[in-house]
Amino acid sequence: MDFYAEPTGTPLEDSERFVAHIGGSSANIAVGLVRQGMQAGLVTSVSDDAVGRFCLRALDEYGVDRVHVHAKGGEARNSLAVVDVCGDATQAVIYRNGAADFEMSKADIDAVDFSRWGALITTGTVLAAEPSRSATFHAFDLARAVGLPLVFDVDYRPYSWSSAADAAVTYSRAASYCDVIVGNDVEFGFMAGSYDLGLAKARDLARETARIVVYKMGAEGAITITPTEEFRTGIYQNNALKPTGAGDAFMAGFVAALADRQALRTAVLRGSAAAAIVVARVGCAPAMPTGAELDDFLAGHPGPTVP
Known about the structure:
UDP-N-acetylmuramoyl-L-alanine:D-glutamate ligase, six-stranded mixed beta sheet, 10 helices, 38% helix
């Protein structure tokens, strides 16, 4: 659950009113895919309480398949993000004690019919603790067995991990499974053990295991790497209200375009345009553009920056 301070622009310390939205990277990506005409299902856990039920209702309203979203009792709790929207000064305070999504189990994965789907997408947070870490690697095995491509959004959040060393080893293991890997320069540098080695790490992954690696560099655009080519793309400039949600929007726009069999460069640019739209709106899930909105934005925009 995301709480946004109202009215927009009010610092958290001065806020007395908030509006609630569903949040979390995987949920945001799923919403973004659905809004662009895809079918998406979420596999995770929520708390067996009113907050969990809020999230289930929101998934229904957005049209995300939540057959495999299970309520967990006991002390498990949904995470909470409390956010203001103040441009470069935006604050996001995250609460993840006893996070319910970490309770996803191998039994939850065994219940999924992976043959119904076209790809498996995972974000890095799910790997930060057990039993969700083992469940995710189990999902990788089952998805690969039926020929699904595996898409990995590195999405490193230090506060979710017991140690940086554990994160680096686990992310490298996950990346070795995956066909498509998306991360920023800091995240690839983290996996490589040094920021200066991040691009080399991305290139190594494209040469050794992955089919597509997208190395994002914020305002500097992105470098997309495959076993046979490498190219740079810019960003779509927009009047940003906040930085949050950009990565999730990029993933949704990028993956939706790949699923629609558009060219790889086009897919990267559509992801970049989706990110530009979301940072100019309040919220993350409710800010995700529809396919028509994305088309209109691209048609009316002068184009990406020159990388």
